[in-house]
# Entry
Amino acid sequence: MFKLNNVILPEGYKENDVRREVARLLKVNDAAIYDIKPLRVSLDCRGRRAAFVLSVGVSLKDEEEFLKKSKEKYSPCEETMRLLDIAESIGAKAPDKPVVVVGSGPAGLFAALTLAYARMRPIVLERGDCVEERTRKVKAYSDGGELDTESNVQFGEGGAGTFSDGKLNTGVSSSLIATVLAEFVAYGAPAEIVYDSKPHIGTDKLVEVVSNMRRAVIAAGGEVRFNNKLADIVEKNGALTAVRVVSSQGEYELPCSACIIAIGHSARDTFEMFSRRVLMQQKPFAIGVRIEHLQRDLNAARYGFEHKNLPPADYKVVAKTSDGRGCYSFCMCPGGYVVAAASENGGVVTNGMSTYARDGENCNSALLVGVNTADFGADDPLAGVRFQRRYEKAAFALGRGKAVCQRVGDFMSKKVSSACGAVNPTYPRGVEYAPLDDCLPAYVCGGLREALPQFERKIKGFASPDALLTGVETRSSSPVRILRDEEGDSSVKGLMPCGEGAGYAGGITSAAVDGIKTALNLLKKLS
# Structure
């Protein structure tokens, strides 16, 4: 099988259209084509009509003869390695004491799956609930109920990404990305994520995928303990010997040979414990708001023509600001909803999510402005955590427990909104119309005011007076980094930090890749 690029097809194309176009480009009969495999599909809307641009793998009946005679040079298709094959190839031997994985977000799940495939029988500790119970609690909180501080949008099986959009696009480059996508499909994700240029699973489908992955870990000999929170570590001569765990049955000590830490970006109490045990440092991040538009208006602005056969439009925008911080969109959710993402009482945190269908009336995205370590005002690893908490509490107080909301037109003219316009807010626990300047740093609001006109020039209607800003968004990435060496160890040998919470990833796919890499580092030590 070889790769064929730039197969261009109109919107609404069918499978037979792909076959005909491939035959035309290769100048072969349709009957000569044995198989066609989609490798990548992207949407090009630069002309008057949309076109889909495909890269496909092609297998011909007389392929060797065709390639020998062809004047074109075609690259062979690389086979995607499955995680089982990668893990088994190392030949690691199970240690006397178990391997522990803390956290079951994408980094933790993929680390555990790698270890389970290698017959290490990992024990996964998750402070929150299984994804099914977690989903029920998230809904109850969204409907106005009490916050469960151990099982919410941030904590629980699947991690924070479960209640986003299941977006899988990433800026990292790794051969393991194809492996991650293949594993997701094997456990129930839509098949098109392996070739879509902007793959997503959707919150509704990701719940099932996550539960299937957990069952696979258990079937391979692993164990998953929910409502078990890491409380402390035990070390001897600079090496990990055990972890201390708090569960509903009480506190216990779990001896272990190694522990992979995949705690996510919001485990503030665990960060505090680690600040006394291992080397950590502050890390820059970004904060801001969620912006909402009508999806139909974005479709019209992005496509500029009839779009019945096209997916809901999305965007990614970046702007320069005079202070050099910059402003950018993040976690854009077509046809999505703003969600209540707090993990502590007395604070407001916003995020965004979409179902697989992306069929909501609104679209939303974070608009973030960079925050530097110099802004924290203290030289200790947890200063960024306190910075986040300060503005979450300010939003809670200003909004009287609701999210703070302001129309873009009013925000730009520094007026308090009295109500929404054409765009209705989707934050589920209700909004309070109040000035965002009172719950965000001046340089963040200044950056947003500089950036919005720039975004309007790129996408007509982006800075529409009726677009809604809802705040605050503070959890775009971890405010700390747990330092590790080339073998993946922290300053305590055998304690291996990974994923977004440890400061080494940003999103589902990159966290999953980092979880696999960390598990492979451990397996190499055990081989």
Remarks:
- The two ends are 35 Å apart (CA to CA).
- The chain has a mean pLDDT of 95.
- The chain has 13 helices and 22 strands.
